[in-house]
Amino acid sequence: MYNDLKYFEKIIFDTLSVILVLFYSWSAVVEPANLQYHRGIYVIITYVLCFLLYRSKSKIMRVVDYVLIVLSIVSVGYWIFNFEAINYRTGAENLVDQWIAVVGVLIGVELARRVVGNVFVILGVIFLLYGMYGAHMPDLIAHAGDTLPGLCTSIFYKGDGVFGIMANVLATYVVLFVLFGAFLEKCGAQKFFIDWPLAAVGHKVGGPAKVSVIASGLFGSISGSAIANTVSTGTFTIPMMKKAGFRPHIAGGIEPAASIGGMFMPPIMGAGGFIMAEMTGLPYSKIMLVAIFPALMYFFSVYMMVHWEAKKYNVIGERSAKPAMAILKEEWIYILPLVVITIFMLTGFSPAYSAILGLATCVAISFKGGDDTKIDLTVVWVMAFVLLGSWLFRGLSATLGPESVAPVKRVFAERYLVIYGLIFAVILAVRRRAKGADLKTELTQFVDACRSGTTSSLKIGATVGVIGVIIGVLTYSGLVLTFADIVIELAGGSLILTILLIALASLVLGMGVPVTAAYLITAVVAVPALTHLGVNEIAAHMIVYWLSQDSNITPPVCIAAFAGATIAEANMWRTAFASFKFAKFLYLGPFLFGYVPGFTLNGSSWDIVKAFVLILIGTYAYAYMLSGIWIKTIGSWFKKAPAT
């Protein structure tokens, strides 16, 4: 789509992409922006880029696109620059406030229609109508209702609407981690994520499918999208599985089943982990620690089911030309960005700061490959000065005392450290250019990575308006609490039935809504029901988050499974049900979250260890049972002995 843009539109797109990177990098490293700028700038840039990229087909309607871009800037800009005044007159908004809000809300709905699809828009419109005509609804879900301007004013200006939790999570975490993923891919790491698993397990029973599971775990942990994971790793692994002897629909089903696990795997976990941290108020490092064992168990489950499937049909892969240890020795450096992010987050640095450090690490290791992977080094030197300067100041402060180093504190301020880094980068660039370095290509690579990451973030960013409508109306109407009571009443107080109802709701919602949006919407109404039944808050969120992924591989929609079927050239429905079969732990996990406190690190050390060991054994056993290979074994016992 980018290639279809006109030259000046490409310049606008690339400029805004770079601005997005620089602004949120500055916000993460130097000085956090005020709330209205932090969320508002993200929304403005996302809206403009979406209307540029998801363009109308006719020339006349293209003019409408530009009108919508102007209206987006005006409406969001009005909120940014009148933020304090609007908050001051809450409940007494003037006519201009109200109609700006109407325009802002309707633009968000139109944006979602273009990028996400009609189903999501229909959902948003239903909630708008419910918000307006709540007084005419059945008593169970009735509320006072409001006019369209009054309702839009609440949705657009209040903290739980358009600029609420979704906008904050996207601006604070998601955009930087999506950019990190783009830079990691640009530096050549994806090749390692395939080559190393191929050498390690490619020659074993079911080797190519096991490569798919491991590669999906590695790549999925940073891609943040099951569909993107399926397409990127599946392009290589699915043909390899078919060549080894897996049936096409099985090969096409294994990849999406494995790819979903990337949404649970730290350090990134898609956008859902950050939303969870925001909603629970827990540090993201805590979310990571809770998530890692369940994620590993998910991959172990798929791995073992693949093993037994291959064993049943005697599928064995080919040995790689290079041994796994040789590849690891040569290319271990590509794991470094993930290690850097994980270590810094676990040691107390913010996720956003850690993401920038990971991004800088990607840029540094891009020089390991050829000229086609080298990215401009400026961000590396800036972050080196910021990190080393802050560490040096802390060391001096601890050694000499805070009062002794107070006179030089300003010299070590982050903004000055950034300037020192920029000056050093410019000097080094001049010297490198004199020696023949292709700085233009490196800078182009940087812009390309910014564009790639920004483009990837638009799909989820375009949902911010309609999610604001849904969450805003749910809060405005009081349906959040009512829904929890309804679910508990329908389930008769049974936790099992409650989880099943949430699974059904997530599946239906996921048919027309991106899975991250489905998680947020479902969490708002379902988590209170689960906590009321005695489930701890983080376990309740994990239940909803895991179940929100089911629409990727569960018929009838299962987009990730259909993507796998397309690559495998297999029947879509057979592939979907094969994927559903291999991803069974996706449905078992939520019950473990609900009934086994140790699964979420809740309890004594002995309880947690006991839970982990039993779940590990149980996962192995149930993978064996579901494979059906034991039926063949039992059948052999009843065969008649050959005549003598």
TrEMBL record:
Keywords: Membrane, Transmembrane, Transmembrane helix
Domain of life: Bacteria
Record-linked InterPro entries: DctM, TRAP_DctM-Dct_fused
PANTHER family (alphabetical): BLL3936 PROTEIN
Species classification: Bacteria, Pseudomonadati, Thermodesulfobacteriota, Desulfobacteria, Desulfobacterales
Domain TRAP C4-dicarboxylate transport system permease DctM subunit: 104-366, 420-598
Protein name in UniProt: C4-dicarboxylate ABC transporter permease
Keyword Calcium: no
Transmembrane segments: 12-30, 36-54, 63-81, 115-133, 163-184, 250-275, 287-306, 327-346, 352-370, 377-393, 413-430, 460-484, 490-510, 517-547, 553-573, 585-602, 608-631
